Amino acid sequence: NPDYVEFRQTLAHSLALVFLLCIPSAVGLVVLGRPIVALVFEHGKFTSFDTVQTANALAAYSLGLAGYAAVKVLSPAFYALNDARTPMLISVGSIVVNFVMNSLLVGPFGHVGLAFSTSTVALVNFLLLAVFMRRRLGRLGGRRLAATVFRVIAASCAMAAVAWFASELLSWLPLRGLGLHLLQVSAALALAAVIFYASCRLLGVEELDDAVNALGSRFVRIVRRR
Fold this sequence. Notes:
Structural class: mainly alpha
Number of strands: 0
Number of helices: 7
């Protein structure tokens, strides 16, 4: 069916964009979670211990970010195919997975276990939707999508290494409190963005231009409204 071919290509491209945006975001939250949380919340009664605990939960939540976003792409795709039953059944199954993971993780790991359980549910939900969609439409992007994901992961690793090094290096400066956290976050994020963009260019991530154009046009619309 020619319509299915185009639908499959559009779906694969959408998933590639989701991974391009969400994987580095998740990696960045894991690496820079502590200075970001400290910058936003570590004031008054919110102590450094609270920052560590919140950053650990944030890292656990971020592991499921790409899965959660991909679900938001795949679920409407089933509805477009007049199939509301499959995502509904998978959602019911996710409730069971959530109950099991909470039972296993919340006791020993507390709030971090709860966050990791939520991420696990998002990833399982995505994988099941992808499997059933593949059975419905065939391979979703095949090697091209897999290559994009691999390249984005590689670029995210390079980005994470630079961001972590910059954050740690800046922590030795004779600054404390809000000024230090602001410098850490702003400098590390700026370097991370440059390194990720350059790495994606070097690795030939084809969806990079589409993502940049989409973000740029959204920024322009926001500026015009103001």
